[in-house]
Amino acid sequence: MNTAGRLLATYDRLLNHGLGNDVSMLKVWAHVFDLPAEDQHLEDAVVMCLQATRSEIEVLCTRLAAVGAPEDLMHPGITRLRNHTSTANINANWNSFREEASKPENRLSFKWANWALRDEDEEEMPADELAALRGELDSLETSLRDTDMTPYLRSFVQRQIDVIRSALRVYRVQGVKPIEEALHQVAGAYTVEKNRIDAEHSGASESAKIVFSQAGAFIEKTAKVADNLDKIRKAGVGAYTLAASVGPLMLTWGQNFLK
Predict the structure, then answer these.
(1) Does 163 score more than 90 pLDDT?
(2) What's the pTM value of the predicted model, to 2 decimals?
(3) Of 127, 138, 133, which Cα lies nearest the Cα of 39?
(4) Which pLDDT belongs to residue 68?
(5) How far apart are CA 224 and CA 190, in angstroms?
(6) Which among 153, 136, 138 is positioned nearest to 196, based on CA atoms?
(7) Which residue in 43, 45, 57 sits closest to 10, CA to CA?
């Protein structure tokens, strides 16, 4: 699926949310982006996904211009989706947007763009695999919260969890790129802070070492998932993969904390 295909899928989920007409856009978007309704920071999560969507709309416009697409082919659907995704509208009612959003010509721009950019397709992560990664991340966060460790080590792991969670949250909108960027950020953070982390190793509890090992294994697993999705990067860069570059570093991280 490419940029246009992801935006088309987002539009389809918006039109088919099934929550009724008298409901706030906050709840509608939470459903569209598959966000848990009980999230204490639901509004922040929705805003993040809307901003990611608007960013992807700009990417789409840039890509279409690069292939010489006439500007009028980008209207009205792309323009309307940009308007609907304004964060200023999250507390408005869906009924205020339903009629315009439901016009059949809105999807035509995205369908055409999806065909025009078909060579940019990446593999799509199955919904159950995405849910499994999110579930593992939730379990890791629970273990972190329930494990005795120094504030510094806890903060370090939590930051890596937050980075990856944010990437997985916007995956349906922006594809694999945010996941790749998150993994590089995690690996970079470990490289920069390795001396401080190693210095605190001697005082770490056995349970803390296990949590770190679990975190390293999860990051390596996520890197392998990203490699399977991004066939364009793999084709262009040859033997380079995230699993080959990030994975061993994360295993070292885990192994260090099991010594």
Answers:
(1) yes
(2) 0.86
(3) 138
(4) 86
(5) 19
(6) 153
(7) 57
